[in-house]
Write a structure and sequence with these properties.
With 652 residues, the protein is an alpha/beta fold. The chain has 2 domains: 374 residues, no CATH class; 252 residues, Rossmann fold (3-Layer(aba) Sandwich). Helices cover 57% and strands 8% of the residues. The chain contains 23 helices and 13 strands. It has a 7-stranded mixed β-sheet, with helices on both faces. It is elongated and about 85 Å long.
């Protein structure tokens, strides 16, 4: 993130405060430690919120001081931002773009190229927001994930000078205006944290209050400076630092964040800055030379550390050893220091003609953005031609008469009398083409309906931990009722990512805590996923059996941890991946131990396990017989589905 240094903006009428660089050092230590060792520094992510407050304070101080003496210029302000932000960002984006070519898989590099373009255009938060969800790749596979915060700061820098300058010249009550903006942003943040945490995390509207908090402090200090006694300043600084440390130590992945929780690090940061450079903690601790040095390189360190950690994890099969992660952070620190000395400082000072850098920097950023976008779109075409089509939202015109607003609705064109219904989530959707062909050869018509992230069960809600329930119950009840009432449909196939719903997580190199939760309205909120699943499954089976439907359960297809694209790196296309069958069986057994007792209670249910189609005695494969079986690490490609359809045997 840019995190304009108090030294960097000396030309903008600021008195340099080394303690603010020390506070920035504390923030970057927290973030880097959290990324390197998330299980140890569980709340280190609040370092980003500290950065937001610092940036809001410094940027607003520059703007207010310039407005007060009539020297503020929008052109000059944005020129300083370009000189400050672009040099280091260009270096990291270019290095990551080139490095990814040799380290990442084709599919991952395709995504990286999009993220490079989004980073260069300062819209990373929107790109990542759009990707978030059930089909999203692991965060650990995205080398530029951390640029979401830089994008929010840039969006703030675009609107904030305009938002302050216009009312200032009209002598409006700026404190009241800033207070209203901050409260509205905070209210939206709290509301969305409870209903849509992804939106609350990535939206600039839910983060502006953190930067505005620094802005309000800047206004207070420049226009109504307080003459607090030394003891009061010392207490303010100690209390602020204590609040920040408490946030880092006590927050973790289960914290409803940002929401109300973000008030802690934001308030602590405001208190530390408000205490001033003369406060004992600020003067003796934060202004210490090592912290000031680290604060000066915090921006390039923030930029470098995450791509290096992601690349290290990737090269070490998903989770680098602790010593490798420490080495990656050390290398990032060295790169940050050289970036600061060799790239940032000469450009920022600018020599005799500081604005001479603006046009070349903007041109280079634009060219990099265009090159990355062109790479992404060209790779999309290659993947489309390879028929690795996505298993996402897909509806055939023949479904129009069914009045079901589901993610997936597939029925062969021209067919009006389905005899078999496939119900489930995206895993079921990935089976459609193969099962369609299977039943077509047997003169039967397959109809598929379902929703991503929703088990094919009555009345059940399914969502990520900490988020409100989805629309699964309403839609599940609707399409299961329609299937039960349709006398033409004799067989119902239930297929899904069963492990996700029963155990709350998906296949990952390093298993995490459960991230998926099931609920039923008439069951206690404390009920576990297996308990909720068992109740909903029995209700569904009994409901369909009462409608005289033949029920088939398709066990989960393997989640390999890699896709076909991962087996064709850009430097070595055509390679074939495989994983040990024992690993897959161990993972799948985690849900089968819970699911099998339910299935045995209903011996009339036929069970089909596709494991042997994708695995031999030793290995499971993402490509076989020249066919790319997987679109991504979890879902079959269209050709993979048809490969399964030619080899599967379904009960009559």
């Amino acid at each position: 993130m840019p995190l304009a240094s108090s030294r960097d903006d000396a030309a903008g009428h600021l008195i340099y405060r080394p303690d603010i660089d020390g506070l920035r050092a504390l923030a970057v230590i927290a973030v880097v430690a959290f990324h390197a060792f998330p299980g140890v520094v569980t709340g280190g992510f609040v370092g980003v919120d500290i950065f937001f407050v610092i940036s809001g304070f410094l940027i607003s101080s520059v703007i207010f001081a310039g407005l007060a003496d009539g020297s503020f210029s929008y052109a000059g302000f944005y020129a300083r931002r370009v000189r400050r932000i672009f040099p280091a960002l260009l270096a990291v984006l270019l290095a990551t773009f080139i490095g990814g070519l040799f380290i990442l898989s084709s599919d991952e590099y395709r995504q990286l190229s999009k993220h490079v373009a989004a980073g260069a255009a300062f819209v990373s938060n929107f790109a990542l927001w759009n990707e978030a969800g059930y089909f999203d790749a692991l965060a650990e596979s995205k080398p530029l994930l951390h640029l979401w915060s830089l994008a929010i700061e840039e969006q703030f820098y675009i609107v904030w000078p305009l938002l302050l300058g216009w009312p200032w010249r009209r002598r409006w009550n700026l404190p009241a205006l800033l207070g209203v903006i901050g409260l509205l942003s905070l209210a939206l943040c709290v509301q969305l944290t409870g209903s849509d945490r992804v939106a609350a995390f990535y939206s600039p509207l839910t983060r502006f209050w953190e930067l505005a908090a620094g802005g309000m402090l800047a206004y207070a200090q420049l226009h109504a400076p307080a003459d607090a006694p030394p003891r009061g300043r010392n207490l303010l600084s100690i209390a602020g630092l204590a609040i920040i440390v408490l946030s880092i130590a006590s927050f973790d992945a289960a914290t409803a964040f940002p929401g109300w929780a973000a008030l802690l690090p934001v308030t602590g940061s405001v208190m530390v800055i408000a205490a001033g450079p003369a406060a004992w903690c600020n003067r003796r601790l934060l202004a210490a030379a090592p912290l000031v040095w680290l604060g000066l390189i915090s921006y390039p360190l923030y930029l470098w550390h995450w791509p290096l950690l992601v690349f290290a994890n990737h090269m070490d099969h998903g989770q680098a050893l602790p010593e490798i992660r420490v080495l990656a952070v050390a290398i990032a620190t060295v790169l940050a220091w050289h970036t600061y000395r060799v790239i940032e400082t000469p450009v920022r000072r600018g020599g005799a003609r500081p604005r001479a850098f603006i046009l070349p920097l903007a041109l280079m950023m634009g060219l990099l953005c265009a090159a990355a976008a062109a790479t992404h779109f060209s790779m999309n075409r290659v993947f489309d031609q390879a028929n690795l089509d996505f298993v996402g939202t897909r509806r055939s015109p023949a479904c129009a008469s069914l009045s079901i607003d589901s993610d997936f609705c597939m029925l062969e064109a021209g067919e009006t009398a389905p005899t078999v219904a496939l119900v489930g989530d995206s895993f079921a959707n990935a089976l459609y083409f193969g099962l369609r062909d299977y039943y077509k050869e047997r003169r039967q018509v397959l109809f598929h309906v379902g929703n991503g992230g929703c088990p094919p069960l009555l009345g059940i809600e399914s969502s990520r931990v900490g988020e409100d329930g989805s629309n699964c119950a309403r839609l599940g009840n609707l399409y299961l009722r329609k299937i039960a009432e349709d006398e033409r449909i004799k067989t119902v196939i239930l297929a899904a990512n069963w492990h996700l719903y029963l155990n709350g997580r998906q296949f990952e190199p390093a298993p995490r805590e459960p991230e998926w939760r099931l609920t039923l309205r008439d069951q206690p909120r404390s009920a576990s996923n297996p308990e909720v699943f068992a109740v909903a499954f029995e209700r569904t089976v009994q409901y369909l059996a009462a409608a005289h439907k033949r029920i088939i359960v398709v066990q989960q297809t393997p989640e390999l941890g890699y896709g076909s694209g991962d087996c064709a790196p850009a430097i070595a296309p055509g390679a074939i991946c495989k994983s040990a069958r024992a690993i897959q069986e161990g993972y799948l057994d985690e849900y089968k131990r819970l699911f099998d007792p339910l299935l045995k209670k209903y011996p009339a249910i036929a069970v089909v396990d596709p494991l042997d189609i994708f695995c031999d005695r030793e290995f499971c494969y993402s490509t076989r017989d020249g066919v790319a079986l997987y679109h991504d690490p979890r879902h079959l490609s269209k050709e993979g589905s048809q490969y399964l359809g030619r080899r599967i045997t379904m009960p009559n």
